[in-house]
Amino acid sequence: MERFIDDFILAFVALLSIINPVGLVFVYREMTVWAAPSERVRLSRRIALYALAVILCSYFFGTFVLAFFGITLPVLRIAGGLVVASAGWSLLERKPAAHEAPQAMDTAPIMQMAFFPLTMPLTTGPGTIAVSIALGAARSERTGYLLASAVGGFVLAAVAVAGVILLCYRNADRIVQRTGNEGARIVTTLSSFLLLCVGLQIMVTGIVEVAREVIATS
Q1: pTM
Q2: How many domains does the structure of the chain reveal?
Q3: Which stretch of 60-74, 81-95, 198-212 has the lowest confidence by average pLDDT?
Q4: Which letter does DSSP use for residue 94 in this model?
Q5: Which of 94-108, 160-174, 192-206 has the highest mean pLDDT?
Protein backbone atom coordinates (compact mmCIF):
# COMPACT_ATOMS: atom_id res chain seq x y z
CA MET A 1 0.00 0.00 0.00
CA GLU A 2 2.85 2.38 0.79
CA ARG A 3 4.36 1.83 -2.68
CA PHE A 4 0.96 2.38 -4.27
CA ILE A 5 0.57 5.71 -2.43
CA ASP A 6 4.06 6.76 -3.54
CA ASP A 7 3.25 5.93 -7.16
CA PHE A 8 -0.03 7.84 -6.94
CA ILE A 9 1.58 10.94 -5.41
CA LEU A 10 4.39 10.92 -7.97
CA ALA A 11 2.01 10.72 -10.93
CA PHE A 12 -0.53 13.16 -9.44
CA VAL A 13 2.02 15.85 -8.63
CA ALA A 14 3.79 15.46 -11.98
CA LEU A 15 0.58 15.68 -14.01
CA LEU A 16 -1.05 18.44 -11.95
CA SER A 17 2.03 20.65 -11.98
CA ILE A 18 2.49 20.42 -15.74
CA ILE A 19 -1.21 20.87 -16.56
CA ASN A 20 -1.85 23.59 -13.96
CA PRO A 21 -5.66 23.78 -14.40
CA VAL A 22 -5.97 26.59 -11.86
CA GLY A 23 -3.75 28.83 -13.94
CA LEU A 24 -5.55 27.86 -17.16
CA VAL A 25 -9.02 28.76 -15.85
CA PHE A 26 -8.78 32.37 -17.04
CA VAL A 27 -7.45 31.36 -20.46
CA TYR A 28 -10.25 28.80 -20.76
CA ARG A 29 -12.83 31.42 -19.79
CA GLU A 30 -11.45 33.90 -22.32
CA MET A 31 -11.43 31.33 -25.14
CA THR A 32 -15.07 30.41 -24.39
CA VAL A 33 -16.31 33.92 -23.63
CA TRP A 34 -19.24 33.58 -26.07
CA ALA A 35 -20.54 30.37 -24.53
CA ALA A 36 -23.53 30.34 -22.20
CA PRO A 37 -22.79 29.13 -18.65
CA SER A 38 -24.65 25.86 -19.26
CA GLU A 39 -22.62 25.26 -22.43
CA ARG A 40 -19.42 25.98 -20.54
CA VAL A 41 -20.35 23.38 -17.91
CA ARG A 42 -20.98 20.79 -20.63
CA LEU A 43 -17.72 21.77 -22.26
CA SER A 44 -15.80 21.31 -19.00
CA ARG A 45 -17.12 17.75 -18.66
CA ARG A 46 -16.06 16.88 -22.19
CA ILE A 47 -12.61 18.43 -21.73
CA ALA A 48 -12.08 16.48 -18.50
CA LEU A 49 -12.99 13.21 -20.25
CA TYR A 50 -10.79 14.02 -23.24
CA ALA A 51 -7.91 14.95 -20.94
CA LEU A 52 -8.27 11.67 -19.06
CA ALA A 53 -8.26 9.77 -22.36
CA VAL A 54 -5.15 11.61 -23.59
CA ILE A 55 -3.27 10.92 -20.36
CA LEU A 56 -4.17 7.22 -20.22
CA CYS A 57 -3.57 6.64 -23.94
CA SER A 58 -0.18 8.35 -23.67
CA TYR A 59 0.69 6.19 -20.67
CA PHE A 60 -0.30 2.85 -22.17
CA PHE A 61 0.24 3.38 -25.92
CA GLY A 62 2.36 6.52 -26.29
CA THR A 63 5.67 4.82 -27.02
CA PHE A 64 4.09 2.46 -29.56
CA VAL A 65 2.28 5.26 -31.42
CA LEU A 66 5.38 7.45 -31.64
CA ALA A 67 7.48 4.51 -32.81
CA PHE A 68 4.87 3.51 -35.41
CA PHE A 69 4.82 6.96 -37.01
CA GLY A 70 8.52 7.54 -36.48
CA ILE A 71 7.91 10.58 -34.27
CA THR A 72 10.39 11.42 -31.55
CA LEU A 73 9.63 13.23 -28.32
CA PRO A 74 11.71 16.28 -29.36
CA VAL A 75 9.66 16.67 -32.54
CA LEU A 76 6.47 16.27 -30.50
CA ARG A 77 7.65 19.05 -28.19
CA ILE A 78 8.49 21.37 -31.09
CA ALA A 79 5.11 20.89 -32.79
CA GLY A 80 3.12 21.08 -29.57
CA GLY A 81 5.07 24.07 -28.33
CA LEU A 82 4.37 25.89 -31.58
CA VAL A 83 0.62 25.37 -31.17
CA VAL A 84 0.68 26.40 -27.49
CA ALA A 85 2.71 29.53 -28.27
CA SER A 86 0.34 30.39 -31.12
CA ALA A 87 -2.67 30.10 -28.78
CA GLY A 88 -0.99 32.35 -26.20
CA TRP A 89 -0.10 34.95 -28.84
CA SER A 90 -3.65 34.95 -30.23
CA LEU A 91 -5.06 35.62 -26.76
CA LEU A 92 -2.60 38.46 -26.18
CA GLU A 93 -3.54 40.05 -29.50
CA ARG A 94 -7.29 39.65 -28.99
CA LYS A 95 -9.11 42.91 -28.34
CA PRO A 96 -11.99 43.09 -25.83
CA ALA A 97 -15.35 42.75 -27.55
CA ALA A 98 -18.89 43.47 -26.45
CA HIS A 99 -20.82 40.48 -25.07
CA GLU A 100 -23.76 39.20 -27.04
CA ALA A 101 -26.80 37.38 -25.78
CA PRO A 102 -26.06 33.66 -25.34
CA GLN A 103 -29.39 32.64 -26.91
CA ALA A 104 -28.37 34.34 -30.15
CA MET A 105 -25.18 32.33 -30.32
CA ASP A 106 -24.53 29.26 -32.43
CA THR A 107 -22.96 26.95 -29.84
CA ALA A 108 -21.91 24.19 -32.23
CA PRO A 109 -18.44 25.69 -32.89
CA ILE A 110 -17.93 26.07 -29.13
CA MET A 111 -18.49 22.35 -28.50
CA GLN A 112 -16.27 21.48 -31.43
CA MET A 113 -13.44 23.26 -29.61
CA ALA A 114 -13.57 20.70 -26.78
CA PHE A 115 -10.75 18.52 -28.06
CA PHE A 116 -8.82 21.04 -30.16
CA PRO A 117 -7.62 23.43 -28.93
CA LEU A 118 -9.09 23.32 -25.40
CA THR A 119 -7.94 19.79 -24.53
CA MET A 120 -5.07 19.51 -26.98
CA PRO A 121 -2.80 21.38 -26.61
CA LEU A 122 -4.14 23.90 -24.06
CA THR A 123 -4.88 21.49 -21.20
CA THR A 124 -2.98 18.30 -22.00
CA GLY A 125 -0.19 19.43 -24.27
CA PRO A 126 3.15 17.90 -25.22
CA GLY A 127 4.45 18.27 -21.68
CA THR A 128 1.64 16.13 -20.30
CA ILE A 129 2.09 13.56 -23.05
CA ALA A 130 5.85 13.44 -22.45
CA VAL A 131 5.39 12.93 -18.70
CA SER A 132 2.78 10.21 -19.26
CA ILE A 133 4.97 8.41 -21.79
CA ALA A 134 7.98 8.61 -19.47
CA LEU A 135 6.03 7.15 -16.56
CA GLY A 136 4.58 4.51 -18.88
CA ALA A 137 8.04 3.52 -20.09
CA ALA A 138 9.24 3.20 -16.48
CA ARG A 139 6.59 0.60 -15.71
CA SER A 140 8.28 -1.87 -18.07
CA GLU A 141 11.04 -2.21 -15.47
CA ARG A 142 8.59 -3.63 -12.92
CA THR A 143 6.85 -6.96 -12.51
CA GLY A 144 4.16 -8.45 -10.30
CA TYR A 145 2.91 -6.30 -7.46
CA LEU A 146 5.23 -3.43 -8.31
CA LEU A 147 3.81 -3.30 -11.84
CA ALA A 148 0.24 -3.36 -10.53
CA SER A 149 1.11 -0.62 -8.06
CA ALA A 150 2.59 1.59 -10.79
CA VAL A 151 -0.35 1.12 -13.15
CA GLY A 152 -3.00 1.47 -10.44
CA GLY A 153 -1.35 4.54 -8.94
CA PHE A 154 -1.09 6.26 -12.31
CA VAL A 155 -4.67 5.49 -13.33
CA LEU A 156 -6.00 6.81 -10.02
CA ALA A 157 -3.82 9.92 -10.34
CA ALA A 158 -5.09 10.52 -13.89
CA VAL A 159 -8.70 10.29 -12.69
CA ALA A 160 -7.96 12.68 -9.82
CA VAL A 161 -6.30 15.20 -12.15
CA ALA A 162 -9.25 14.99 -14.55
CA GLY A 163 -11.50 15.72 -11.56
CA VAL A 164 -9.46 18.83 -10.71
CA ILE A 165 -9.70 19.99 -14.33
CA LEU A 166 -13.47 19.51 -14.25
CA LEU A 167 -13.77 21.35 -10.94
CA CYS A 168 -11.72 24.33 -12.13
CA TYR A 169 -13.23 24.68 -15.60
CA ARG A 170 -16.76 24.06 -14.34
CA ASN A 171 -16.42 26.97 -11.90
CA ALA A 172 -14.62 29.28 -14.33
CA ASP A 173 -17.43 31.87 -14.19
CA ARG A 174 -17.38 31.96 -10.39
CA ILE A 175 -13.62 32.30 -10.26
CA VAL A 176 -13.66 35.14 -12.79
CA GLN A 177 -16.51 36.87 -10.94
CA ARG A 178 -14.60 36.66 -7.66
CA THR A 179 -11.60 38.39 -9.21
CA GLY A 180 -13.74 41.03 -10.96
CA ASN A 181 -13.54 42.20 -14.57
CA GLU A 182 -10.31 44.12 -14.19
CA GLY A 183 -8.68 41.39 -12.14
CA ALA A 184 -9.80 38.74 -14.63
CA ARG A 185 -8.39 40.82 -17.51
CA ILE A 186 -5.05 41.17 -15.74
CA VAL A 187 -4.84 37.47 -14.86
CA THR A 188 -5.92 36.48 -18.38
CA THR A 189 -3.21 38.66 -19.90
CA LEU A 190 -0.57 37.26 -17.56
CA SER A 191 -1.78 33.70 -18.15
CA SER A 192 -1.73 34.24 -21.92
CA PHE A 193 1.81 35.60 -21.72
CA LEU A 194 2.89 32.65 -19.58
CA LEU A 195 1.19 30.32 -22.07
CA LEU A 196 3.24 31.92 -24.84
CA CYS A 197 6.41 31.49 -22.76
CA VAL A 198 5.58 27.87 -21.96
CA GLY A 199 5.02 27.14 -25.64
CA LEU A 200 8.34 28.74 -26.58
CA GLN A 201 10.12 26.88 -23.78
CA ILE A 202 8.70 23.57 -24.99
CA MET A 203 9.85 24.40 -28.53
CA VAL A 204 13.34 25.38 -27.35
CA THR A 205 13.63 22.16 -25.35
CA GLY A 206 12.68 20.12 -28.39
CA ILE A 207 15.08 22.05 -30.65
CA VAL A 208 17.96 21.57 -28.18
CA GLU A 209 17.25 17.84 -28.00
CA VAL A 210 17.19 17.57 -31.79
CA ALA A 211 20.46 19.52 -32.01
CA ARG A 212 22.10 17.20 -29.49
CA GLU A 213 21.00 14.15 -31.47
CA VAL A 214 22.37 15.65 -34.69
CA ILE A 215 25.69 16.53 -33.03
CA ALA A 216 25.94 13.07 -31.45
CA THR A 217 25.37 11.29 -34.77
CA SER A 218 27.58 13.59 -36.85
Answers
A1: 0.75
A2: 1
A3: 81-95
A4: P
A5: 160-174
